[in-house]
């Protein structure tokens, strides 16, 4: 069983609750991160941010990096294809935003990203991966650099353990492993044996990721892999209080399920935060997918969902949230 009193150290960063909110493009913006943090997420991450966009000082890209003090410790995740671009982007992120860590994305399987040699394409060229990582580590020597990677490009080329050994040598301070291959995308299962193998072969913290859906999976992930922390992605969608549930469980306390009233309050807050950062139109649009996640998997959920699907704009969403009867 995992010992909640065991602190994990990522470079100069000491963490007392090693449960990480996974970076998720289109999801883990300021609004979602603040809510996850309120429920006790140990570390939150930005969505992955393009290094090319950063060095071009693209306004939309830089806006994705903005965060509040409340969100600390926070990691900014960057992706890119060359050591130079990644080095310059990391430097700029550090100087302008001062996050607590910079994470390199070696996991994105989306062709738009991998075709250019970024994301999980690095798993096909461990030398380039090492060069990129070393350049980033040298560029930001005041905060830890971590990486998040997949297991390999395909099942014939599983490289996570070798990559981990190389990355530790060039100064990476922690590794998150989502042990699926690029080709696998999200199909099949994450192969937790590879997390265990990585943990046995490096001395830096290993954060296990992939398919943790509930408290039983948390236990199973720790006991199967001996990992130092766990990163939670899809299980937090429409369920950011999962972090509170995990904390209670770790402290041997009961977790009382969130009531419908609380769920509606959380949605209201989420919507307000989205509108605050994106404006009414984009904010309300973004909220639609969250409504679908918040109102899923419990008795009566579909009748709520139907109401939100019909909401055309921010004001209609607010009305529904305030007047809904159940
Ligand atoms: C909608 C969505 C967006 C994602 N975006 C990113 C991303 O920007 N960077 C990244 O490293 N991984 C990204 N991922 C992968 C997750 O961080 C995580 O590795 C994966 O979902 C497996 O963990 P889970 O089973 O806990 O969801 C994304 C996943 C989802 C579902």
Topology summary:
Blueprint: E1 8-10, E2 13-15, E3 19-21, H1 30-38, E4 44-50, H2 51-55, H3 59-65, E5 74-79, H4 83-97, E6 101-106, H5 111-114, H6 126-139, E7 145-152, H7 160-169, E8 174-181, H8 192-201, E9 206-209, H9 215-225, E10 229-232, H10 242-250, H11 260-278, H12 280-294, H13 301-310, H14 314-323
Parallel strand pairs: 3-10, 4-5, 5-6, 6-7, 7-8, 8-9, 9-10
Antiparallel strand pairs: 1-2
Helix pairs in contact: 1-11, 4-6, 7-8, 11-12, 11-14
What does this structure look like?
The protein has 326 residues and is of the alpha/beta class. Helix content is 45%, strand content 16%. The mean pLDDT is 96. The protein binds flavin mononucleotide. Flavin mononucleotide binds next to β4.
Low-confidence stretches: none
Radius of gyration: 20 Å
Number of domains: 2
Q: Might you state the CATH topology name of the largest domain?
A: TIM Barrel
Structural class: alpha/beta
CATH class of the largest domain: Alpha Beta
Strand order of the largest sheet: 3-10-9-8-7-6-5-4
| Proportion of strand residues | 15-25%
How do the SSEs run, as a string of H and E? EEEHEHHEHEHHEHEHEHEHHHHH
Report the CATH architecture of the largest domain: Alpha-Beta Barrel
Mean pLDDT: 96
Q: Concise description?
A:
With 326 residues, the protein is an alpha/beta fold.
Features:
single chain, 326 residues, alpha/beta, two-stranded antiparallel ribbon, Non-ribosomal Peptide Synthetase Peptidyl Carrier Protein, Chain A, binds flavin mononucleotide, TIM Barrel, 10 strands
């Amino acid at each position: 069983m995992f010992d909640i009193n065991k602190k994990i150290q990522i470079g100069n960063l000491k963490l007392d609750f090693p449960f990480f909110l996974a970076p998720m493009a289109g999801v883990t913006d300021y609004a979602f991160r603040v809510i996850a943090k309120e429920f006790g997420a140990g570390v939150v991450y930005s969505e992955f941010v393009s290094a090319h966009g950063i060095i071009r000082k693209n306004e939309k890209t830089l806006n994705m990096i903005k965060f509040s003090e409340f969100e600390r410790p926070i990691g900014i995740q960057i992706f890119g294809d060359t050591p130079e671009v990644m080095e310059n982007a990391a430097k700029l992120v550090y100087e302008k935003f001062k996050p607590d860590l910079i994470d390199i994305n070696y996991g994105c399987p989306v062709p738009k990203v991998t075709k250019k040699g970024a994301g999980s394409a690095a798993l096909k060229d461990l030398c380039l991966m090492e060069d990129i990582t070393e350049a980033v580590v040298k560029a930001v020597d005041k905060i830890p650099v971590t990486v998040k990677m997949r297991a390999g490009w395909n099942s014939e080329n599983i490289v996570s353990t070798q990559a981990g050994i190389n990355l530790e040598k060039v100064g990476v301070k922690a590794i998150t492993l989502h042990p699926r291959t690029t080709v696998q995308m999200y199909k099949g299962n994450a192969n937790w044996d590879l997390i265990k193998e990585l943990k046995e072969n490096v001395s830096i913290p290993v954060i296990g990721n992939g398919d943790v859906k509930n408290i039983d999976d948390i236990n199973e992930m720790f006991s199967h892999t001996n990992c130092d922390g766990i990163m939670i992605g899809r299980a937090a969608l429409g369920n950011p209080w999962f972090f509170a549930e995990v904390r209670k469980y770790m402290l041997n306390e009961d977790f009382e399920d969130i009531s419908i009233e609380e769920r509606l309050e959380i949605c209201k807050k989420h919507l307000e935060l989205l509108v605050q950062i994106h404006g009414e139109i984009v904010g309300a649009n973004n909220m639609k997918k969250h409504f679908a996640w918040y109102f899923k998997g419990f008795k009566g959920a579909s009748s709520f969902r139907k109401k939100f699907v019909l909401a055309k704009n921010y004001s209609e969403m607010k009305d529904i949230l305030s007047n809904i009867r159940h």
